[in-house]
Design a protein that fits this description.
The protein has a single domain (about 85-300), classed as Protocatechuate 3,4-Dioxygenase, subunit A (Sandwich), CATH 2.60.130. The chain has helices at about 5-10, 10-55, 235-245, 250-255, 270-280, and strands at about 55-60, 65-75, 75-85, 100-105, 105-110, 135-145, 150-155, 160, 180-185, 190-200, 210-215, 230-235, 280-285, 290-300. By secondary structure, it is an alpha+beta fold. Strands 6, 7, 10, 13 and 14 form a five-stranded mixed β-sheet that branches. It has a four-stranded antiparallel β-sheet with strand order 9-8-11-12, with no helix packed on it. Strands 1-2-3 form a three-stranded antiparallel β-sheet. It starts with a helix and ends with a strand.
Length: about 300
C-alpha cells in the first residue's frame, strides 16, 4: 500500500527526474493552449466577417436595402437563408387608377368598392361587363415585406393592381364599358398574392409598366385615401422584346423601341437598386406565357 509519504520521499535524484517530467507536460499543455487560442481567434474573426456581410443596412438617398440572415436549428440540422429587400419608391397612380381619386365625365371612378374586384384572374371584366382582354398570358406573384423588420412578410395586406391592354388602353377610361385588367388580392402568410393577366402593352411616352397600390387590409382597400403605397413595376426588357415582336402587339413594338427606364418620366429618377427591385424576375415564352415574381418593400 502506497502512503502519502511514499509518494513524496524518494530522494533528490527522483525529485529532479519527476520535476523534469512535470516541466515537459506543462510545456505541452501551454503549446496546446496556444494552438486552441489561435484556432479560436481565427474562428471569431471569420464569424465577425460573416455577420457584417449578412446584416448590413444600406441607405442611398431614399432607398433602403435590408439584408437578413436567419439560422434555423432543427434536430441535429442547422440551415441558413439570406434575403434582401428595397423600399419601393412612391410613384404616380397616373390618370387611369379608378381608385376614387379622379373622375370621368363628371363622375368619380372607383372600381375598389365594386363587387367582383377581389379576384386573381383579371383578364375578364366583372359585374355587368363581359369583355376579355386579349394578349399573351402572364402570371405575376407579388411578395409584400417590411424592410424595417428584416424583410419579414406582411400578411393580410391588400394589393390593387391595374395596367393597360396590349394596345395601350385602360378600361373604365379609354374603354368605358369594360373593367378588365384590374383586381385586388390579399397577401397570404408568406406575404404573397398572385394575379393572372396578360402582358401589358407599351404606349407612346411611357416605358412598359404595371400600376399597383398597397393597403393595410382588404377592409380598407375601398378608396385611395387608405393606401400605404402607390408605385409601379417596370416590365423586363427581354420579355418585352419577345412579346412585342408578335402580331398582337404591333403598336407596342414601335413605342418600345424609343423608350427606356432611364428616359421614362416615372422611372427616370430612380436609383439602379430601385429599378432592379421594381422589375419582376420573369421566365417563359410567347407560346406558353410568362411567369414573374417581384418583392415590394414597405418601410413600416
Amino acid at each position: 500500500m502506497t502512503t502519502i509519504a511514499d509518494a513524496h520521499d524518494h530522494g533528490l535524484i527522483h525529485d529532479l527526474s519527476h520535476m523534469s517530467v512535470l516541466s515537459r507536460q506543462a510545456i505541452g499543455r501551454r503549446r496546446t493552449l496556444r494552438l486552441l487560442l489561435s484556432a479560436g481567434g481565427a474562428a471569431m474573426v471569420s464569424a465577425c466577417g460573416s455577420s457584417d456581410a449578412s446584416g448590413s443596412v444600406e441607405t442611398t438617398s431614399s432607398t433602403t436595402t435590408t439584408t437578413n440572415t436567419t439560422t434555423t436549428s432543427t434536430t441535429g440540422t442547422t440551415s441558413t437563408s439570406s434575403e434582401s429587400c428595397v423600399t419601393d419608391p412612391t410613384e404616380t397612380n397616373g390618370p387611369y387608377p379608378a381608385d376614387g381619386s379622379n373622375s370621368v365625365n363628371g363622375s368619380v371612378v372607383n372600381a375598389l368598392d365594386d363587387n367582383g374586384i377581389v379576384r386573381a384572374d383579371i383578364r375578364s371584366s366583372f359585374g355587368t361587363a363581359s369583355g376579355t382582354a386579349a394578349g399573351i398570358y402572364m402570371q405575376l406573384t407579388i411578395t409584400v415585406v417590411n424592410v424595417n423588420s428584416g424583410c419579414a412578410p406582411l400578411a393580410g395586406y391588400a394589393v390593387y393592381l391595374w395596367h393597360c391592354t396590349r394596345d395601350g388602353q385602360y378600361s373604365l377610361y379609354d374603354i368605358p364599358g369594360e373593367n378588365y385588367l384590374r383586381g385586388v388580392g390579399v397577401t397570404d402568410a408568406n406575404g404573397q398574392v398572385t394575379f393572372i393577366s396578360i402582358f401589358p402593352g407599351c404606349y407612346a411616352g411611357r416605358y412598359p409598366h404595371i400600376h399597383f397600390e398597397v393597403y393595410p387590409s382588404l377592409a380598407r382597400a375601398t378608396t385611395y385615401a387608405n393606401r400605404v403605397l402607390t408605385s409601379q413595376l417596370a416590365m423586363p426588357t427581354a420579355a418585352c422584346t419577345a412579346v412585342y415582336a408578335t402580331s398582337g402587339y404591333t403598336s407596342s413594338r414601335s413605342n418600345f423601341s424609343s423608350t427606356t427606364t432611364a428616359n421614362d418620366n416615372v422611372f427616370g429618377d430612380n436609383t439602379a437598386a430601385q429599378i432592379a427591385a421594381m422589375t419582376p424576375a420573369m421566365t417563359g415564352d410567347i407560346t406558353n406565357g410568362f411567369t414573374g415574381s417581384v418583392t415590394v418593400g414597405l418601410a413600416i
